[in-house]
Amino acid sequence: MQGMDVSILTAAVMLAIVILVGRFALVEWRTARLRRQPVLFGEAMNLYGVVPRDAGDAGLDARLWAAARRCATCAKSGACHRWIAGWRRDRLDAECPNAGFLGELARRRTVMAADELGHAKPSADPPLMATVQAMRFWQ
């Protein structure tokens, strides 16, 4: 009977160790992923030609935070990193759950920049207009 008690106790201790190690590994994995995700979100914003201030200027701070949280929990971070590294906005447009929001910010930025310069509202593709405006700025 006592041998059985020792076996049960040993099994319980081993199970507790496995659970603790597994939990530690999961926390470490999530922490590493969360450290990487804000960088990806910032790089995606860069690919769209927007900055956090654009969301603030448009009164979309809450949507920006929601997009950042969505990015932090996205399962496609590996693919996202490859798309961003390859400047594949077309892949982000097709796959990223934040693509619509980032595209909207890019369009707003283009319109606001045109308004500030006193130009007519652009009718061209927003990324093209952002490139044209950047070229004007550096001339």
Multimeric status of the protein: single chain
Computed structural class:
mainly alpha
Proportion of residues in extended strands: under 5%
Record field, number of beta strands: 0
Helix percent band: over 70%
Q: With helices defined by DSSP (H or I, 4 residues minimum), what is the helix count? A: 7
Pattern of helices and strands = HHHHHHH
- Span between termini: 88 Å
Number of domains: 1
What does the main sheet amount to? none
Overall spatial form: elongated
Low-confidence stretches: 120-139
- What would you report as the Rg, rounded to the nearest angstrom? 24 Å
**Average pLDDT:** 76
Give a written overview of the molecule.
This protein has 139 residues and is mainly alpha-helical. The chain has one domain (37-138). The chain has helices spanning 2-48, 52-57, 61-72, 77-85, 89-95, 99-117, 126-138.
Brief overview:
This protein has 139 residues and is an all-alpha fold. 81% of the residues lie in helices and 0% in strands.
Primary descriptors:
elongated; 7 helices; mainly alpha; 81% helix; 139 residues
Break the fold down into its secondary structure elements and pairings.
Blueprint: H1 2-48, H2 52-57, H3 61-72, H4 77-85, H5 89-95, H6 99-117, H7 126-138
Helix pairs in contact: 1-4, 6-7
